[in-house]
Amino acid sequence: MPQLITREITILSSSKAVLNMSITSTAGAIQRAQSTLDIMRATLSREAALCTMLATVLPANAFTSHYSSLLSSTSSSRRKSKLYSTVDTETTHLNNGAVSPSSQLVDQFLSQYGTSLDEGRQWANEFGFAEGEGAFYAIFRAIRRIDSKIGVGSEGTKLLGLSGTPFYVPASQLAEAEIASGEETNKLSDFCFHFSNLATALDDDFLDATVGSTDNRKGWQVSAVSQPTGSSFNDARMTLAQVKTALNSGTVIFNNIGAHIPRLAGPTLASTDALSLPGALNMYVTTRGMRTSAPPHTDRQDVLVVQMEGAKRWRIFSPPTDGDVKPNADPFARGKGTDSLPLHILLEGTEGRLGSELLMDVITREGDVLFIPAGFPHTTDTVEETDDADYDASIHLTFNIDTHVWGLDFLSVRNVALRWLGLKDVLTPSSLSTSNPEMNRYVGKVNQLPKNIRSSLMDALPLDFLDLSPNDNPNTVDPIVNQLGKIFTSVNELTGDTATISRDSLVEVLKRIHSYGSSILEIHRDMYLTAVEEGRLREAEAAMTSHIKDSRSTSVKLTPDQIRRLSLFRVRPFFQKIDAAKKELDDWCLSGGTSVPSISDNSDENTLLDPNWQFSSPVQVGDECEAVLGGAFFAARVSRVVGDKYDVQFFDGDRADGLERDQIKLLKPPSPENVEIDTTGLTKKEIKRLMKKMEKKHRK
């Protein structure tokens, strides 16, 4: 063993020497050093263990200094070291720190951001915001305008989805755009949310969070940060101490935090209003020195990241091309749960097993913006180039553009149309019922289609879809109808299917989806506005009660009314409305064709069930359900049952462990043979007759 260790140290020392030689080489030797580095990187990607050891010995910027010189990155006055990128210099634009495979897209974003700032200021004034919320509005207005210019079915550079384009813009360039627009009171830098703000929020509210795993060879899994320590209300609340403890294990994740923390409700409302799309905000907190703060994974949402405090390194890859090998892997949930996207395999490049290419390698710092399209693998760490950074935790906000979550994409519209007409969807996994609205449409045969058809199916509807008026003027959805027609034709040619849908039927379906999406949008707006008003009410109450605070205490005891207004209770009714809107769309689908009746039918079989069967029936591994995440129910599947505790995997690949029975809502009633029947008062003959009747129904 000592000999082996000595040998490995020798190898590492040699590798480090070669790297240092390449870093200090003259311009004439760079090409030879590049070849050496390429060979070494290929070897290291095959030997994952050696790569990990190498990373523990070399300085964090050993690889990147070389690339900085190649890309001529400029230093920023607020940075102690150069921003870097390891993207292909022939396809990547690097100008004053901005990074993207498309220089044109970055220029468009900055131009549209500057143009939208005045509109953002007017929006902020309307709602009484004065801390940079209008700048968030301008950011998302810029994204929406870029998307609208691209158009439906365009073959050019796209922003969203599997054919999208990531980009990074430092705070300095955003500030330049603000100055050029003449905007002095509506700046992104005016808004902040630091660890001290999180500490206050934990004291003021009842928050929930999870902590993520850190193994970059396995799928990202999460577990609860805290468990109730007693039966009282305060015993159930998550504390700052528990969050700090969890930070030692991984990144602490606050899902849908814009609905829970009033200070974050304003920016979340800004994104929702600017896009005219139901959006959500997550917050991620990571301690310094975390070599893997999030293992490689993909998301169902197109996301825009804004760094609030500290720094974080991001590596972003092109979508994997192994769909024909793993058709049942959701492209929007790769690297989550049981699926894995090992970093060393991603780094194999386009000729490797996953066929992914490293597109960007950047560090975000306070005020920087990063956009990642849905389905693009990315991984993060907080290993700093300098040891004297003046912060303890990295905090970033992730704004979710939730088109796929709410079924506002071409694949979902196609499926709704087929369900409404009672037609079979050949792309639906055979193990899933076409009458189940919670099925995962992004797995199965759809991933075996040619890349261009698959991407077109999974493209989001235009971001201005909910601002159209198909009920008043059906022609407004003509581009979408035309694209759907092309998609149906392509799928039929490739699969041999014969399903056809008339233009009038497609327009009718789009009208219904428009109505559904508009309802979801208004529910989200009301939820965020309620959080904003709650924050202002708390400020007023604090001012009125400041004189009666106990000098030995830092807070006033919550009144029953204040407890009722805590986010845990405040948010729940809105998600109940969302569930009702989803059910209304599902009922409409079933009413239009010959699909299987819903479980609410008053059949004799269902009348034998407990009226509260969704929360009382036995739960088994594999059961489809909705489970609590962030105070609301989301589609999931039961993955493990241990006594009276349940583990679930959510629709986007996230996990939750140790849930109680009342935190799980079954979507299907148990089969007749599993239904427990109360036979109290029945004779043996009556029981026998009842059992025969049930067996007969089951055979049918």
TrEMBL record:
It is an enzyme of class 1 (oxidoreductase). It comes from the Eukaryota. It is found in: Nucleus. Coiled coil: none annotated. GO terms for cellular component: nucleus. SMART domains: TUDOR. InterPro entries: JmjC_dom, NO66-like, Tudor. Its cofactor is Fe(2+). Binds 1 Fe(2+) ion per subunit. Its EC number is 1.14.11.-. Keywords: Dioxygenase, Iron, Metal-binding, Nucleus, Oxidoreductase, Transcription, Transcription regulation. Residues 250-418 form the JmjC domain. One of its GO terms (molecular function) is 2-oxoglutarate-dependent dioxygenase activity. Gene3D superfamilies: Cupin (2.60.120.650). Oxygenase that can act as both a histone lysine demethylase and a ribosomal histidine hydroxylase. Belongs to the ROX family. This is Bifunctional lysine-specific demethylase and histidyl-hydroxylase. It comes from Cyclostephanos tholiformis.
